[in-house]
Amino acid sequence: MAIDYAERIPNNVNLSENRRLQRALEQWQPGFQSWWGEMGPAGFQDKEVYLRTATSVDAQGWATFGYVKMPEYRWGIFLAEAERDRKIAFGEHRGEPAWQEVPGEYRGALRRLIVTQGDTEPASVEQQRHLGSTCPSLYDLRNLFQVNVEEARHLWAMVYLLHAHFGRDGREEAEALLQRRSGSADNPRILGAFNEQTPDWLSFLMFTFFTDRDGKYQLASLAESAFDPLARTCRFMLTEEAHHMFVGETGIGRVVQRSCELMKQHDTDEVGRFGGIDLKLVQKYLNFHYSVSLDLFGAELSTNAANYFSMGLKGRFSEESREDDHQLKHALYTITQVNDQRIVQREQPALLALNETLRDAYIADCARGVARWNKVIHSAGIDFELRLPHRGFHRAIGGCAAVKVTPDGRIITEAEWDAHHAQWLPTAEERKFVGSLMKPVTAPGQFAGWIAPPARGINHQAIDFEYVRL
Ligand code: BYC
Fold first, then answer.
1. Distance CA 109, CA 97 (A)
2. Is 461 helix (H, G, I), strand (E, B) or coil?
3. 61 — pLDDT class (breaks 50, 70, 90)
4. Which of 91, 174, 244, 337 has the CB geometry, 3.0–4.6 Å to 159, for a possible disulfide?
5. Residues 240 and 153: beta-carbon distance below 8 Å
6. Is the pLDDT of residue 37 over 90?
7. Secondary structure class of 343 (helix, strand, coil)
8. pLDDT score at 6
């Protein structure tokens, strides 16, 4: 069926004037719709949800809010405004004009970056597809669906780049993005964290805090790219990403607040009996999601990352505001390494240490969020502190993957790990307990007993607004 692009797909890339691209997207679109039907949110597809839809890139008003049935969401294609005469800010091509087309020699590397980024978007939707049936409130249900439709829009954003700039292999990659499945044994998603389960809402809120924040740092690095369409696409995606991290940060803040209320009310640390989540268990979930998200930055030393940087494909966070040669010819960077069963700090060529550089910025950002949760605990007069575990804890990628590290950063033996990991990571029983709290609450303005209401509603609406019409 022909699509009226101006109507169906809000865009600022002149879709209606590009026949070739239209045809490619027309061929891809039915596959996307059936993927959404099969792997998108389970249930609720015929319900009206109060959603934000991106309709322009105007900083003053880029989105509109209104009731939409999810399959009818207008997945638009937007690139942030072009910067006139934009110059490449880093790498071997620093100072040259940014590219509007893909240079032949970088085609493979660039495609791989775009595919890796694109793959995470549908993966997260797949991971979250069963959460609707256990929502703690209509407000939260709407936020889940907002995150889901926007991740799907981010898939469109990457598929647009593949179709518009990579010819036949781009079309094949776009197809493959609809074929892989989170957690599948035969055809899994590309990155580790996107094959983990998101079985309950505590996991979802941790995911949006920690894993979406990886998205922020990766997108910000790609927003520096010499390939201008990628840079502009990622810049616009970041505006939506902010809400996803807001869902995580305020969500965990509300869980913590509720636990504190129950602790005070019943004068105990063990609030499970009263339908809450112990702060110690919140810490275990934090340990898990933080560590799998740290893996998403890749190994501490990476020639891939060095090449991406030198080629001009992927920059550093806030590349342009850094005061150095932007080529890292002689610069050094201190990284954490495992040496002879000890964790040590070593200076390494900064060019090779770019994954670690980005991870450091991410860690500092996570720490700021954790400090805000701790404020909630301290204001309640409770003596407990949430902490980020050591960066080497529970890692599957990088130097620390080869050893076992405690949350406070000591290397231990396999036997010690086996004896103690249940103190640090959620056990099957604890996950089951959290699962048992997940009973749907769907009356407007009502909230499950394990999470406090938010401070305010979405888009100036009341907290008891009917965010989803059931
Ligand atoms: N899992 O040289 P290294 C988001 C592989 S999230 C599995 O260190 P590199 C979102 C690696 O491929 C942001 N494999 O890797 C959030 C390499 O394989 P080869 C997504 C991994 O390339 C929430 C080998 O190990 N965007 O947007 O420097 C909801 C050696 O590693 C992993 C991006 O990631 C892993 N975690 O760095 C929705 C940006 N890590 O070459 C969305 C694009 C590494 O030996 N991606 N490997 O076969 C990249 O920039 C890079 O691919 C990575 C990896 C930073 C991820």
1. 20
2. coil
3. confident
4. 174
5. yes
6. yes
7. strand
8. 59
Q: What percent of the chain has pLDDT over 70?
A: 98
Provide the 3-class DSSP secondary structure of residue 339: strand
CA distances (Å), 56 to each of 11, 26, 240, 353, in order? Answer: 7, 22, 12, 37
C-beta separation of 434 from 281 below 8 A: yes
**What is the distance, to the nearest Å, from the Cα of residue 468 to the centroid of all Cα atoms in its chain?**
24
Rounded to whole angstroms, the Cα distance separating 101 from 245 reads: 32
Mutate to test the pocket of ligand 1, among 191, 290, 352 (most ligand atoms within 8 A of CB): 191
Contact between residue 460 and residue 318 where contact means Cβ atoms under 8 Å apart: no
Q: Compute, in angstroms, the gap from residue 431 CA to the centroid of ligand 1.
A: 27
Report the pLDDT averaged over residues 409-415: 97
Q: Which residues pair with 349 in a beta bridge?
A: 332
Region 35-48: mean pLDDT is: 97
Contact residues of ligand 1, CB 6 A cut-off: 113, 116-117, 120-121, 124, 151, 191-192, 211-212, 214-215, 218, 295-299, 302, 304-305, 314, 355, 397
Q: Each residue of 413-461: pLDDT tens digit?
A: 999 999 999 999 999 999 999 999 999 999 999 999 999 999 999 999 9
Written as one letter, the residue type at 17 is E
Closest CA to 187 of 123, 230, 251: 123
pLDDT surpasses 90 at 45: yes
Does this model's pTM top 0.85? My answer is yes
Number of helices (H), then strands (E), belonging to the chain: the values are 13, 7
> At a CB cut-off of 8 Å and minimum separation 6, what does 436 contact?
none
Contacts of 14 (CB under 8 A, 6+ apart): none
Closest atom of ligand 1 to 296 CA is: 36
Q: Any idea which residue has 């996950």 for tokens?
A: 431
As a whole number of Å, the end-to-end CA separation of the chain is: 30
Share above pLDDT 90 across residues of the chain, in percent, rounded to a whole number: 90
Q: How far is the CA of 190 from the centre of ligand 1 (A)?
A: 8
Average pLDDT for residues 295-317, to the nearest whole number? 98
pLDDT at 1 over 50: no
Ligand 1 centroid – CA 41 distance (Å) = 26
* Angle ∠(239,245,247) on CA atoms, nearest 5: 115
CB atoms inside a 10 Å sphere around CB 247: 21
Q: What is the mean pLDDT of the chain?
A: 95
Query: Tell me, what's the pLDDT at 233?
Result: 97
- Tokens standing for 460? 């100036």
Residue to substitute in 296, 309, 317, 356 for testing ligand 1 pocket (most ligand atoms within 8 angstroms of CB): 296
User: Is residue 4 scored above 80 in pLDDT?
Assistant: no
Burial of 91 (0-12, 13-18, 19+ CB in 10 A): buried
